[in-house]
Design a protein that fits this description.
By secondary structure, this protein is α+β, with helices and mostly antiparallel strands. The chain has one domain. 24% of the residues lie in helices and 40% in strands. The chain has helices at residues 2-27, 122-130, and strands at 31-35, 39-41, 44-46, 49-55, 64-69, 75-79, 81-84, 92-98, 101-108, 114-117, 137-142. It has a five-stranded antiparallel β-sheet. The longest helix is centred in the first third of the chain and has 26 residues, at 2-27. It is globular, with a radius of gyration of 19 Å. The model is unreliable at 14-27 (pLDDT under 50).
Length: 144
């Protein structure tokens, strides 16, 4: 009886560890996005183009998002915080839009119910104040 109990507990622990490792590896995947407009990540401006997005430390409570231009030198690391919602079928980036200015707001990974929120930068706050009559909207770009 004890042997069966210990075997069952061992199997449950092993499956839990395997599940956590698989999730951590999935969260650390490098995803690609083709962004059709110029935008800001934090205080860094980027042109339209193809980008790679990676969460560099998925096991941490203060995740760092790496944003890198494909084939270029442009890159930024930004600290994010978690946001919880529905499980996402596919990965996406969400941008705040003020007139023709776009600012990265959130990153959602596939098959997860938590996303990464990018804090508003000084540049975004200034744009928001300057264009106070313009209503902020959002734009989403799929990642693969």
């Amino acid at each position: 009886m004890k042997k069966e109990l210990y075997t069952t507990i061992g199997i449950v622990v092993l499956l839990s560890v395997i599940g956590l490792n698989a999730r951590a590896q999935n969260s650390n995947a490098r995803l690609s996005a083709k962004i059709p407009f110029a935008f800001n990540v934090g205080n860094t401006a980027f042109p339209a183009g193809e980008y790679e997005v990676t969460c560099t430390n998925p096991a941490s409570s203060a995740k760092i998002l790496e944003f890198r231009q494909k084939g270029g030198d442009a890159r930024v690391l930004i600290q994010t915080s978690d946001i919880f919602g529905r499980v996402q079928e596919s990965a996406k980036l969400v941008f705040h839009r003020y007139g023709d200015r776009y600012f990265l707001s959130q990153a959602w990974m596939p098959a997860e119910n938590s996303g990464l929120v990018v804090p508003k930068s000084r540049e975004e706050k200034n744009t928001e104040r300057r264009l106070s009559g313009v209503k902020m909207s959002t734009a989403a770009v799929a990642m693969k």
